[in-house]
Structures are given as structure tokens and as C-alpha cells.
Hints:
globular, 11 strands, two-stranded antiparallel sheet, three-stranded antiparallel β-sheet, alpha+beta
Amino acid sequence: xxxxxxxxxxxxxxxxxxxxxxxxxxxxxxxxxxxxxxxxxxxxxxxxxxxxxxxxxxxxxxxxxxxxxxxxxxxxxxxxxxxxxxxxxxxxxxxxxxxxxxxxxxxxxxxxxxxxxxxxxxxxxxxxxxxxxxxxxxxxxxxxxxxxxxxxxxxxxxxxxxxxxxxxxxxxxxxxxxxxxxxxxxxxxxxxxxxxxxxxxxxxxxxxxxxxxxxxxxxxxxxxxxxxxxxxxxxxxxxxxxxxxxxxxxxxxxxxxxxxxxxxxxxxxxxxxxxxxxxxxxxxxxxxxxxxxxxxxxxx
Length: 300
């Protein structure tokens, strides 16, 4: 890690921009939690204000001498839809447009079947369908690496509460997305193993995460820290790491017609870059065509 004033300023600017996107999704997270409560039978926990008191609907009903009855029709419908989805699930199939490539298509089909078995995709997709019915959002993370004694391509469900994305998008295909990211809560040992390449990095990480407020305190945010819950983990003993993918806007050069990157957060960008922590992977499925043109950079 190179810790110059410019890189620190640029990193904080990116962090602040990402926190604004995370804050913009607060209403979605609240509605998702409410939908999840309703789905699993907790249907009287909405808070209401009566005579200056804020209580749950269940408490109010009990105070009126009544019993808060429940008839969970939502869960029944969700389970029925999931059952239909599982009964109609098909295995992936590669079809060659050129007859001469049929052998390669069959090989790819076999590889896809193998990868689905390794990732237990049927169970993963079932949970993804359930999440879609509850919140309307499903995020899959694709990565390549070693887990246990196997090096392979992996698929993971990303909790929507840990995900944020550029809220200025207007294209339903996501082609105008400029930022997306995921929040990670990891142990101090994992943090040092992943990001410390020398003793200097190790001391810096311990200085950042050794304070009660973590990044918020070490970078001087204090009570003005952006997006409550964005910079600090809600689980004691874990360290919050923000993984960002930033895609700067581009414009054509008038003389050559080639694309150049416009200035990004915290300074000009000489070439398109993706800002990621070291070793981070994922989101290739959403941005696969664009990521090939970008240089990986690391946020301090």
C-alpha cells in the first residue's frame, strides 16, 4: 500500500460516494425487513404512535383486551411458488450456432452441469427465488478461487442488506451503472491475512481497526460518519470492509474517436479503473463486457 495524501483523499472521496449510495437504499432495507417479518409470521410488530406513545401493533391490541390473531397467507403463497419453481427447474444447456462447434457445446454443457453440482445451485437458486419473492432483489456473486481443497468457479448469494449500487441508473439492463459494492464483516485475522503485505500495512490496519469506531474514528469522521452501519460492523469483534467497483464515465476523443475516462471522485483518472480490495473478485456477471477494459486499483 502506498499512503500518500492524494491516495488517502481519493480513497475517502470514494468511500463517501459509496456511503451515499448505501444510504439511498435505506428505505429498501427497511421495507425488506418488514416483508421478511410478514413472510415468517411476525405481522404485528409495526410501530404506531398512540397518545404520544410509540408501541407495536401487537402491544396495542393486547392493551385493548383483544388477542392479535395471525393467519399467515403470505408464507403459504411463497412456499407454493417455490415448489412450482423447483418442479420446473431445468439444467443448463449450451447450443452451438455453428454445427461444427457442437462438440464444444456438449463439453461446455458438461462443465456447467459439473459446476452446478459443485455449487449446489438448485438449493442456491431456491433461496434466491425466496429472496426475490420477499424483497424483489437477488444478487449473485461469481468468483474464482480456492475453497477447502478445491480451486473452482463459485457462486454465492449476497445478502441485499450488504449490497449497494448506483442509484442514478435509468437503464433496466444496468448498462449505465457506475458503482456497486458489498459490505464484508471479517475477523481481524482474516483482515490482516488478506490486506497486510508487510509490517507497515499490519501496523496501519491495526491503527485503523483498533479504535472503537474503526474507520470512522481513524479517518476523523467522528459523529459525522456517513451512513450509520456503513463504516462499522454490527457484530462485535468483526471488522467492516467495503468492497467497491467504480466505473468512471467516458467520452469520445474528438480527433481519434477513442474513449477516455472523465475525472472520477477525488481526482482525474488517467484510464478506466476498477477500485477493489486486494484479492476481491465478483460482479463479473453484471459487468463482464466492461470489466475487461479496466485496470484494478486498490483503495487504502
